[in-house]
From TrEMBL:
CDD domains: Radical_SAM. The keyword Kinase does not apply. It comes from the Bacteria. Signal peptide: none annotated. This is Radical SAM protein with 4Fe4S-binding SPASM domain. PROSITE patterns: RADICAL_SAM. Residues 22-248 form the Radical SAM core domain. The keyword Heme does not apply.
Amino acid sequence: MASEIKPLCGLERVKLADAVPLPTPFTLFVFPTTYCNFKCQYCGHSLGYEQMKDKYNFEPENMSMQTYSRIIEQSKEFSSNYKMLSLTGHGEPLLNKELPLMIELAKKANVAERIEIISNASLLNRERSQALVEAGLDILRISLQGLSSRKYEQVCGVKLDFDELIDNIRCFYQNKKQCKVFVKIMDIALEHGEEERFYHLFSDISDRMYIERCRPVYDGVDYSQNNTQVIIDRYGRTHAKRMVCPLPFYMLGIFPNGDVEPCDTIYKPVVVGNVHRESLYSIWKGANLRQFQRMQLEKQRESNLKCKVCCAPDDVAQPEDVLDDAADTIVKRI
């Protein structure tokens, strides 16, 4: 078995409480598109665009190269590189035809230690694979929705040739050069007893593979049949409820229109700036973000109605990221 069974998150982490405030975000999420060709039953896209507009004030769009170029140019103002630039956000990034060019521009600008995308891989044909690899993609994270065509139709409402999907992933892996291939699937997308089949399928066509637990990520989506609990994260670890969200202390997310939020969630709990009106550096150092961070450190997260329904601190935050116990000390620093 060449592939490792490990979570797909970054495993080399610093203790965030000792490092904040950061001079440069560790991670920048840039959303090339918020369109998706799937409607997975545990995702907000399952609601449809009309309900997503009503629930999240969400409207799908593609990011223009003009907006993206501004982001890359502004990223050069930071004193160090991002640890990760993720060209992912509430949609299928391969739907933006400019994605290889986006990767290439970021590579040439040398603004990030690594560049990744998270994709459902349904559009990953030989031509797109070659374009991504030649552009310099460092990590392809593939999110599967089942291990059969029937399961895909059940989970995300699409007719997909599963054998062809596997062939396309294998083709990418065999020609990936510097790129790492990480594959994950949610537990609810597996039939009983399919865990070993998942590991067998991807043992020689991925670098890392993992089965994640489905969490109640999207407010308004029915998770009643999935036995989800917010005190268990997607990696199966139990913990006390977290009152400080660590995400705003090490990342920024940018929607296709240039709006900047202090995380990568669909909720947009606060817009701390827009790249067409101010620079990312000034946003990162600015009063809007500091005010939001202070609110978190004062453990008033649930006073923000968007944060109140978000499970990110209890779902994706790693043990090294937790700030609750150090909140009083950190608030004095910022």
